[in-house]
Automatic annotation (TrEMBL):
All residue ranges annotated as the DUF2007 domain in the record: 1-64
Top-rank taxon: Bacteria
Upper taxonomic lineage: Bacteria, Pseudomonadati, Pseudomonadota, Alphaproteobacteria, Rhodobacterales
SUPFAM superfamilies on file: GlnB-like (SSF54913)
InterPro entries: DUF2007, N-reg_PII-like_a/b
Protein name: Putative signal transducing protein
Organism the protein comes from: Rubrimonas cliftonensis
Length: 76
């Protein structure tokens, strides 16, 4: 899996997920339930992940729509 976006803004993640799924690229969020630890303040970033095989295309889709993406090669 590769990280595409890391942000504290849930609207960015929702927009990015909709863009990727409309292109047929499977993605998912990590760190969604970290609000339990932080007290629902929204200070801990969430990560949007995609399969390594889809990462290049996913980054292109996000960049084309004005979203900043994580550097290539960030693997988990």
């Amino acid at each position: 899996m590769e990280e595409l976006i890391r942000t504290t803004d849930p609207t960015v993640l929702t927009f990015a997920t909709a863009l990727l799924r409309s292109e047929g690229i499977e993605c998912f969020e990590l760190d969604v339930h970290m609000s339990v630890l932080e007290g629902s303040l929204g200070v801990l970033p969430r990560r949007l992940m995609a399969r390594r095989a889809d990462a290049f295309r996913a980054r292109a889709v996000l960049r084309d729509n004005g979203l900043e993406v994580s550097a290539a090669g960030v693997g988990v």
